[in-house]
Write a structure and sequence with these properties.
alpha+beta; 42% helix
Length: 97
């Protein structure tokens, strides 16, 4: 499983229908799980981003497909980062010449 951190901004449509947001979030988590993901945390935040999500997906293709489907709803725009655990980082650094 690969680790990803998602930063989400509500669109005009998303904020206009903010009362529906909790149900949309639950639906989004279930959709992620349906493609084999495990959501480790999801937070409503203050500042530049409205939400932050942390999840594990089987691979880049599963994550990309899920995020494209999520974006197509028109409620949020996403910025996604592939993340590495400290153990993975040590392995990467250990392979440097």
């Amino acid at each position: 499983m690969e680790l990803y951190i998602g930063l989400y901004k509500l669109t005009e449509q998303g904020i206009k229908n903010i009362k529906d947001a909790p149900a949309r979030i639950e639906k989004g988590i279930k959709a992620a799980e349906s493609v084999g993901a495990k959501i480790l945390g999801f937070y409503s935040t203050m500042g530049e981003y409205d939400y932050v999500g942390i999840g594990e997906f089987p691979n880049d293709e599963a994550a990309a497909g899920y995020l494209l489907a999520l974006g197509s709803t028109g409620n949020v725009r996403t910025t996604t980062m592939r993340a590495f655990t400290i153990e993975q980082f040590k392995e990467i650094v250990g392979k440097l010449p």
